[in-house]
Amino acid sequence: MEDLSLRNKLDIGDTTFGVEIEFDEVNLENIRRAIEEDRQYKLDFGFDYDNWIVSTDNSITRGTILGMVGGEAISPILTDKYESYQSIEDVCDIIKTLGGETSDLTAGQIHIGANIIENNPRYLLNLIKLWIAYEDIIYKFGYNGSKPRRAITSYAVPLYTYMYHLNRLEKGTSMIDILELIGNDRNYGINFKNLKNAYKSNGKYLNTIEVRSPNGTLDPIVWQNNINFFVKLFNYAKNDNYDTKLINERINLSNYPRRIDDAPTVFGIKNISKAEELSDLIFNDDLDKEYFIKQYKR
Asked: Residue 141: which of 283, 232, 248, 271 has the closest Cα?
């Protein structure tokens, strides 16, 4: 976003996160080689640089006479420091320099460390309800001024399909109760499957919660803005001032389409007053609000 700048920090504490930068229209091996060369160059000069993994992606990668085209660059675990955002910017620049682009196939998934929920079923339920209440705003923000990507309702199904099961979710007395009711499908706009699988394997709610709704981007400022928004959205679910009455009203007043395939287009209709309402709930900082609203209005 040309009128905004990359920030050194977001004040999100010790929250960990990771990103999947999907790309199209460029040879996957060329991207892998260039990222590894950049890493080695930085290591030679004494910089601490964790490795990114370049991988195929079933929804993008395809074979051509020039080799495998399209894929994703998966970050290491990142934290709120300048070097993390610089690393994202460097990888975006490498992809763009080699001719890579985003397309109507690419997404911008973000993984947020599951410890943000603190193993608390109330926080988890608050997050689910908050997401459903403002799902139209969340998706429109993630479009970043573009149309919703192709097959978004296959790979990032809106969570409001659970709206009619909230009474059952409310009765959940433990994390696993709620996660079992949500089910095993990872292809929702917010994916709790990693969290559920971690608990089943070791009895702890580790791993990540994955956000799958945003479109792909090669703009590091958008990546940072998305990270900031979703972490602070998650954090609001733990806020002592969580506005249960307003959230419930928003859910009850929601007029989401019955056909899931119609949802991305409906979500693309701007609702500035509702976006500002959400911004006032989750952000304490005026700069955060400015960055959020500017991207939402695009």
From this structure: 271
Considering the domain boundaries, does residue 232 fall inside one?
Answer: yes
Read off the pLDDT of residues 9-58 as tens digits, 9 standing for 90 and up: 999 999 999 999 999 999 999 999 999 998 887 776 666 667 899 999 99
Specify whether the CB–CB gap between 124 and 159 falls below 8 A: no
**Distance separating alpha carbons of residues 240 and 170, to the nearest angstrom:** 18
Verdict on whether the full-model pTM lies above 0.90: yes
75 touches 166 (CB < 8 A):
no
Residues 26 and 173 in one domain: no
Residue 185 sits in the same domain as residue 48: no
- Inside any domain, residue 224: yes
Instruction: Give me the mean pLDDT over the 97-112 stretch.
Output: 97
196 and 285, same structural domain? Answer: yes
Start-to-end C-alpha separation, the chain = 10
